[in-house]
Amino acid sequence: MNFVLHGASLSRGVTIGHAHLVSTARLEAAHYEIPAQAVEAEVERFDAAVRRAREELAALQAHIPADAPAEFGAFLNLHRMILGDSSLSQVPRELIRARRCNAEWALVQQMEKLVEQFEEIDDSYLRERKADIQQAVERVLKALLGGHALPEAALSEERKLIVVAHDLSPADMILFKRHHFGGFVTDAGGITSHTAILARSLGIPAIVGLHIARQTIREKELLIVDGEQGVLIVDPDPLVLAEYQLRQSQLDLERQKLRRLKSARAATVDGTAVELLANIELPQDVPEALDAGAEGIGLFRTEFLFLNRGDLPSEDEQFEAYREVVEAMGGRPVVLRTLDIGADKALAGDGEVRPNPAMGLRAIRFCLAEPQMFLAQLRAILRASHYGKVRILLPMLSHLHEVEQALALVKQAKQQLAEGHVPFDRRIEVGGMIEIPAAALALPMFMRRLDFLSLGTNDLIQYTLAIDRTDDAVAHLYDPLHPAVLALVAKTIQTATRGGVPVAVCGEMAGDLKLTRLLLGFGLRSFSMHPAQLLAIKERVLRTELAEVQPLAQRVLRASDPAKTRELLAKLNS
Ligand code: PEP
Ligand code: MG
């Protein structure tokens, strides 16, 4: 049946493909066929991953910190037992042989079966153990996926699929990076939730807030995702299909043209240089940033290293990840934001539901409440600073004492490294995110203690307008052009620039083509965005005359009527 659903578009473009209905566990594991002659090697790959997961658990058990809770050892033991049980160590091997499927898929199939059985158990303690099965399986999956690229055949199959899900968490979205789907649509989700931000970074057309997609669409049904209009067309008729195929090839052509700008210097018509940086979530995102010609990393959301796992990454593991990014960027600056966990990015196992997580123990508040964990991250960042140009960025500041405490911990981390003769950049710069209205309003207080600032407009809008960025019921109220938001953004850029403190925008506003000239007119000279958006923004910068946009931007600021604001913005962009 031919029908159309409307939602909020996350990223531009058009994609045509077949529906693939997913749950999270299925997302973790791609499904592909193994040629008959490679089946035994696949079984061996599975065995090696189970061995590796068990060795990891043994190593963890051998180094249990003295202050770890007593249950920690028992929990590791249980996971080792689970992995030793034939239902997980043998049955998937049989599935690989019988169905000639890949190891990840066989493992997830078996896990789902076991979890179902556990869900039927009356005893609530035993029923809860299904979470242990899932965590133990995740460890094996991680070992399987480490360094294992999907075969080309599986990738080209995936490009023809459009994921249809009820909702996806930021942690789920990270798993997306292992896949190469053509697009995705969800029933839930706001447009600047972290899920949405990650979706944009994938550069594939995506729509959220469709409400009934998951229940109305059937597996394999033909879909068109129109990311330009926020429209999903289910089972299109041939005329509509032909029209969209044409649109798709036009967009491909535009993308290819943009690629020619990769090495062009980003500057306005009058020659003013504009810094274009990339936002990344994982070290694997660096090639895309370099490919888009990014001059550096303006925001590395380090918390994504902490998701999709049952434990915290150690200092060494973090150091390796940070160093990988810093080295790959070859001397270009890398801004590492300290852990912004909480709200929609909860750590695994943190089952406690807080009354209002976006305003709770999130980001710097969480880190200051967990100083040992924070110190480990700071040491890892400092160690990486020896290998390139690293800056530290503190998220969600609202009080000066948070900056002072964080700086004291940076100092302590430096002392600890110095005592161990570990090299690091002693003059490392520490900056702060301006993403709470209080920080924007009391800016000079922060400027005195920080080396640079970065405007987190996603949260700044959320907190200024009191709109939960993850809630699609209020997504229509989320407005970067609200006069209060524009006043805070413009004032921050102006005050910081006058005070000689470098300021960037790293929220989604920086990658929004409609706003590029407005921000340039406010005086912004440093933009950090997803690599997928960078070349289009560069093209806009190259076609901007500062002398023209500055007075118009000031008029936008003075406009008190939303219709007038939009009219002036249209003029700016004409
Ligand atoms: C922001 O809030 O604008 C930002 C860049 O940080 P995040 O989206 O990760 O909260
Ligand atoms: Mg933020």
Structure summarized in a few sentences:
The protein has about 575 residues and is α/β, with parallel strands linked by helices.
Task: List the quaternary state of the chains.
Answer: single chain
- CATH T-level fold name of the largest domain: TIM Barrel
Assign the structural class, choosing from mainly alpha, mainly beta, alpha/beta, alpha+beta, or little secondary structure. Answer: alpha/beta
Strand percent estimate: 5-15%
The gross shape turns out to be globular
Number of helices: 26
Instruction: Characterize the main sheet.
Output: 8 strands, mixed
Provide the low-confidence segments as ranges: none
CATH architecture of the largest domain: Alpha-Beta Barrel
Between the first and last Cα atoms, what is the distance in angstroms?
A: 40 Å
Q: Mind telling me the C-alpha Rg?
A: 25 Å
Which CATH class of the largest domain?
Alpha Beta
Bound molecules: phosphoenolpyruvate, magnesium ion
Overall mean pLDDT stands at 89
